[in-house]
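Recall the central idea of this unit: under ordinary conditions, the amino acid sequence of a chain determines the structure it adopts. In this exercise we apply that idea directly, starting from the sequence alone.
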Amino acid sequence: MKKKILIKNARAIVTCDASDQVFQDMDMLIEGSQIVQIGKSIATQDAEVIDGRDKFVYPGLINTHHHFFQTFVRNLMTIDYPNLLVVEWLDKIYRIFQKIDSEVIYYSSLTAMGDLLKHGCTCAFDHQYCYTRASGKLLVDRQMEAAAQLGIRYHAGRGTNTLPRSKGSTIPDNMLETTDEFISDCERLIDLYHDSDPFSMKQIVVAPCQPINSYIETFKESVALARAKGVRLHTHLGEGENVIMQERWNKRTLGWCEDIGFIGSDVWIAHGWELHPEEFKFMGQTGTGVSHCPSPAVLGGFPILDMKALQKDKVIISLGCDGSATNDSSSLLDSLRMAYLMQAYHSKERGGCLSPYELLKIATVNGAKTLGRDKLGSLEVGKAADLFMINTGVLELTGTLHDPKNILARVGVTGPVWLTMVNGKVVFKDGQLLGVDEGAVAEEGEKVCTRVLRNECEAFR
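Accordingly, the structure predicted from this sequence is:
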């Protein structure tokens, strides 16, 4: 028998559905992994009851770009991102990345995933491209282990870098893979983990890191494999690499991707702040999405993505934290707030600002579209019970409760939520992750960070 959960008397349920419905003082009945009813005074005898008084309920946030391993490469002023160009920063930080092993991957992933869950994220994509001679190949496997413990819905991007420094990349030799190695491991991971069920908890994405650090054959073979296996494709694009691409190929990166078929409704890119308006139109026409990561753009002093123009050209924009080396946290609520403020900064010259609620739908509905997850992104009967709840019965929110749709980004509700549920299971509540002993994990993670990185890397001194 499927477990039933009844959220009783929720002050507001912000559905993010096509009609933008908000239900006041309503109940939500969940059976197994699905929402089965939303209404007044739902009667059931065999459900666990969650008291929704003073609680706002939202669809779970969906993170479409991250680098979990970087949570152990944070708070390092010795490689201060704002003072460097992207390519310069990559050159410095890869010298640290080459020390990372599978224990760092495991504990840094637990750290990032736990942070995401605490801040209302229920489904996360991670771009894992850090394969070293010390790490071995089973890094996504360790991440799957971490995700299962915490109960987060996980999309693993199997990345790679194949071009050596001698040919113009920023990658140390002991972090390079061959294209054949990469494709073989992608195929292994897809066969082992990829679940295409509508309520799947784990999927695989073929995600070569970035065009400037791989051979063109790596990207061509990625396209062939992904299309043969029916999985999605992802890479970094439009974040400062176009000058190099024009020198190498006499064309911009998006045109290079067009030539090899790395575009389409099964593809999304990270960043895109370097894209031109005509490239927006091309992305909209082809269905190619973009994950907007506000924190690294602000830290690096890069152009603010013109989200209004992207929307006008029907580009699917989603929201990402990005790696913690250029963000220093894994809170998508914080990224939501920052994205809104960034858009507001340019609102007059760009014909108005996206509303906080529009940004929320980018972080939920559009995230689901980006990952190809029809059952995620909104709170509706028949959809997955992925949600978070905030407690509004606190002094700091007094005077704001008349507008549940806009409160998160507008007011700056960026701290830990009251409850997070994934696939009908409560995984975080009242400040506690329910799948792990948080204190023990934190203690062991600190030991691993010290042993592998702090004791070995000059940047930590």
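The longest strand covers residues 4-14.
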